[in-house]
Design brief:
single chain, mainly alpha, two-stranded antiparallel ribbon, 17 helices, 2 strands, 2% strand
Length: 470
């Protein structure tokens, strides 16, 4: 009876938190819609009063979301609530700064448009919070996000049970077709990953070789099943692999041995995929680290009214999001960490939303470079961009398969440069601290296979000497 009473009390408390979250979501939605309707014509006191009520609701909602995260058991629900809470805080800071710009520079149409866009983003975040906080939680949208890993698992299960089916007259054709179809999908994906510029040449070649060997092992299995229980094919089989025809000699092998060999080749192909994705993700994180300050350069170009540079950096910022999407799509296909996949997807979506808003804030700063509200507004969007980018990089690191030391070095350097930028450009160029510099040199420059990737200059022509000196 005591256990039942405790369970009932816990359920009641759980529903109480959900109901309060729903109430605050409704209050915030009404306040934002009221601001949207009366933004241009309402007096300043009315806007400030509405902002005061909105601030109280947002702060309280963030506290309720934190309490809800501690209560829920689902990994997906925890990850979504955590991402929504972080995004809510950043978005509300951008909303406050956008409203200040609108109040001081209402003559600019771009400030009103940007303010309304931030409000729409805020409403979308509130809608997500309201839906995710409820019980039961629907996690169907995150069931098949890592399709490549699922395809490998399905193929291995199918191969494990294929020995008997391939020897049965009624099932052998269907089983062989299923095996070929599933393997062809993996081989096609392997070619796409190998041809990607982010994948190293050696890793790409090994991936293609493993794909060819896996196809040969599958043909061996089919031939062994066709030859009967002794597994001896009656004649050589002409097959086409990677555009080349070859007469493969008959090999005496049993169906059981052929199944084991195919499973070994599939496991080897999976390992080569992991290596290729490690190269892909290392390159992506390094690119993010190099490009993370583009939004800062955009702000500086707008502050000094350099229109050509501002246009250039705006285009770079927009192209960055497209590159991020390509990386996230590729890496999520192979990851088993659903929480990190959710964080990466949510961060990517928010970066795509913040990007045009940051560009609009830069245009407002370009028009009024001496205005404190426009400078604060641009700083708020810079902070939101960096925070979401850091969360995306952290999620990519958690997804693996990436060497832990390299991932830590990249993230350490990224955060150190952000902090060093506040102290001046010279400190920022140093890369942020002895841990970052020595570990990055030891983990990258000492690799013989990586030496050719560096420009042949005075500080990279002799990496071994440089490492020894440091």
């Amino acid at each position: 009876e005591l256990q039942k009473a405790l369970l009932a009390a816990l359920k009641l408390f759980d529903q109480t938190v959900v109901i309060r979250i729903e109430q605050h979501c409704n209050l915030i939605t009404k306040e934002i819609e009221r601001l949207q309707d009366t933004l241009k014509n309402s007096p300043r006191t009315a806007v400030e009063s509405s902002v005061g009520r909105l601030t109280e609701c947002v702060v309280r909602l963030a506290e309720l979301i934190t309490a809800r995260i501690e209560d829920v058991k689902s990994v997906e629900q925890k990850a979504e609530l955590d991402c929504s809470r972080i995004t809510l805080e950043h978005c509300y800071g951008s909303l406050l700064s956008s409203l200040k710009v609108q109040l001081h520079h209402s003559e600019l149409s771009i400030t009103e448009m940007n303010c309304l866009a931030v409000m729409d983003n805020m409403l979308e975040i509130i809608r997500v919070v309201s839906a995710v906080a409820k019980t039961p939680y629907d996690n169907s949208q995150w069931q098949n996000v890592n399709m490549l890993a699922h395809n490998f698992d399905d193929l291995q299960k199918l191969v494990s049970h294929s020995g008997d089916e391939l020897t049965e007259e009624s099932k052998k054709e269907q089983c062989a077709e299923d095996l070929k179809h599933r393997l062809e999908a993996l081989v096609l994906h392997a070619k796409q990953v190998a041809e990607s510029p982010r994948t190293g040449d050696n890793a790409g070649q090994r991936l293609l070789c493993c794909s060819d060997e896996t196809q040969l092992a599958l043909q061996n299995l089919i031939d062994a099943a066709e030859g009967g229980r002794n597994g001896v094919p009656t004649s050589p089989t002409r097959i086409v692999i990677s555009g080349f025809e070859d007469d493969r000699p008959a090999v005496s092998v049993s169906v059981v041995e052929a199944v084991d060999q195919l499973l070994d080749k599939i496991r080897g192909l999976r390992q080569q995929f992991e290596v290729a994705f490690s190269h892909h993700m290392s390159s992506a994180l390094a690119q993010m680290h190099r490009d993370r300050r583009v939004v800062d350069y955009l702000s500086r170009a707008a502050a000094i009214r350099n229109n050509p540079k501002m246009s250039d950096y705006s285009g770079q910022l927009l192209r960055q999001v497209d590159r991020f999407e390509e990386v996230v799509t590729t890496v999520c296909n192979f990851s088993d960490s659903t929480a990190d996949i959710i964080k990466a997807r949510r961060s990517l979506s928010q970066l795509r939303t913040v990007c045009p808003q940051a560009v609009a804030a830069a245009h407002a700063l370009f028009q009024f470079p001496a205005s404190k509200p426009t400078r604060s507004n641009m700083a708020a969007f810079e902070h939101a961009w960096h925070a979401e980018l850091d969360q995306l990089m952290s999620a990519l690191k958690g997804m693996g398969p990436l060497d832990e030391a390299k991932a830590e070095v990249i993230l350490d350097r990224s955060k150190s440069m952000s902090a060093a930028a506040l102290s001046g450009p010279r400190l920022a160029m140093l890369g942020g601290g002895p841990i970052s510099r020595t570990r990055s040199v030891q983990s990258v420059n000492t690799g013989r296979g990586r030496q050719n990737d560096f420009l042949m200059r005075s500080f990279t022509s002799q990496p071994d000497v440089t490492v020894g000196t440091m």
